[in-house]
Amino acid sequence: MNTSTSPSREFWFGVRAELPILLGVIPFGLIYGILALGAGLSPFDAQAMSTVVFAGSAQFMTAQLISAATPMLVVIVTGFVINLRHALYSASIAPYTKHLPLSWKAALAYLLTDEAYAVTIIHYQQEGELTYKHWFFLGAGLALWTCWQISTGVGIFLGAQIPAAWGLDFALPLTFIALVVPGLKDRPGVITAAIASLAALLFFGFPFKLGLLASAFVAIAAGLWSEGK
Question: pTM of the entire structure?
Answer without folding.
Answer: 0.73
